[in-house]
Design goal:
alpha/beta, binds zinc ion, 12 helices, binds (4S)-2,6-dioxohexahydropyrimidine-4-carboxylic acid, eight-stranded mixed beta sheet, TIM Barrel
């Protein structure tokens, strides 16, 4: 397909309007005036709840939701039921993912049952197709266990993704800082390992990561759209529907996260898409729907387009060693809409942005050369 008058997002930022040909839709030509074409985004942190929690999400509902949000590739966390801690479970998910409209990569657990005690077989999980290891949702390893996990992951060539929250310290900012410091100490004892800090939420953690990077440590970090856009005060009126782990913090923390992202101290934007059914939220479950609101939330932050490209396209793929395979999204940055969770493709309607007026929508998603989403596009 030829897209006329489209602006292209790449490492240099946004181009002037030009004609771009993408490998989908045959010989068609369309007027894309006002639209932005980007390589498909990769979400490094998603909970697809499959197997085990079909009331929250399934591979297929999660994939549809991701596609409508502009993610052509997402990385599924291991806190399913059963936990993805065995090679055959990874293999099963990889096989089922092959039939989805988008790409889904699979994370294997670091420890059996996410319990923080017994290491999984990193080499076997890698051979089964895992792209990384993570106990996300929990963080129960002591420093010695984490150092051993990092060394095993290094031998398997996998990064370790950490939900940095020292659980014995609760959920405050000090619990995050302590876990990041411990993880960096473990990393220092694991030559060749790669450590990635998930959903950084505090200024203190940003400072530790910045200092570690300055010393040349192989650490990367991610931040969620909600931690970039919201504070604890914003969700206080929502009661349990504002629960998320890590929690939203202060305006100073939020501003520090935006700055760290812009400076490259934080590498990646990842949604932590955590769908829950509404009764579970009412009962206190942590997490927000992420896929279908991410783009508009991020456009609302007015980030440098080069930062957006780095954080949503380039760095997440580098971290899990994935290339891009005819994956494109077409964005209408001016299209206005109101967040209505009942319209989500996801089973998770749990969003703190319900009712918000937003600007920025996906009008087309292409994955593996196929148009998988199309929302009203002018033909010429
Ligand atoms: O809010 C969260 N929800 N944070 C996590 O780390 C886990 C996730 C979930 O699985 O619901
Ligand atoms: Zn987490």
């Amino acid at each position: 397909m030829r897209l006329r008058h489209v602006r292209l997002l790449d490492a240099r930022g946004l181009s002037y309007p030009q004609t771009v040909e993408i490998p989908a839709g045959g010989a068609e030509e369309r007027d894309a005036t006002g639209l932005i074409l980007s390589p498909g985004w990769l979400d490094l942190h998603a909970h697809l709840r499959d197997p085990g929690f079909p009331e929250k999400e399934t591979l297929s509902s999660g994939a549809a939701s991701a596609a409508f949000g502009g993610f052509t590739h997402v990385v599924a966390m291991a806190n399913t039921m059963p936990v993805t801690d065995q090679p055959d479970r990874v293999r099963d998910l990889v096989t089922r993912a092959a039939d989805l409209p988008i790409r889904v990569s699979v994370v294997g657990a670091v420890t059996i049952g996410l319990e923080g005690r017994t290491l999984t077989d990193a080499m076997a999980l890698k051979a089964a197709g895992a792209v990384a290891l993570s106990d996300d949702g929990r963080h129960l390893m002591d420093g010695d266990t984490l150092a051993r996990a990092l060394r095993a992951a290094a031998r398997a060539g996998l990064p370790v993704l950490i939900h940095a929250q020292a659980e014995h310290l609760g959920r405050g900012p000090q619990a995050e800082a302590a876990a990041v410091q411990d993880a960096l100490d473990s990393l220092a004892q694991a030559p060749g390992a790669r450590l990635h800090i998930q959903h950084v939420s505090t200024q203190a953690a940003v400072e530790l990561i910045r200092a570690a990077k300055e010393q040349g440590m192989p650490v990367t970090a991610e931040v969620t759209p909600h931690h970039l856009a919201l504070t604890a005060g914003d969700v206080a009126p929502l009661g349990p529907f504002g629960n998320v782990s890590p929690p939203l913090r202060t305006a100073d923390d939020r501003d520090a996260l935006v700055k760290a992202l812009s400076r490259g101290v934080i590498d990646v934007i990842a949604t932590d898409h955590a769908p829950h059914e509404l009764p579970a939220k009412a009962a206190g479950a942590n997490g927000f729907h992420g896929f279908e609101t991410a783009l508009a939330v991020l456009l609302g932050l007015d980030l440098d387009p080069r930062v957006l490209y780095r954080a949503c396209v380039e760095r997440p793929r580098q971290i899990i060693d994935q290339s891009i395979d005819d994956e494109w999204i077409l964005i209408d940055p001016d299209r206005e809409w109101t967040v209505d969770p009942s319209s989500f493709k996801s089973r998770g309607k749990n969003t703190p942005f319900e009712g918000r007026r937003m600007r920025g929508r996906i009008v087309m998603t292409v994955c593996r050369g196929q148009i998988i989403v199309e929302r009203m596009l002018q033909r010429v």
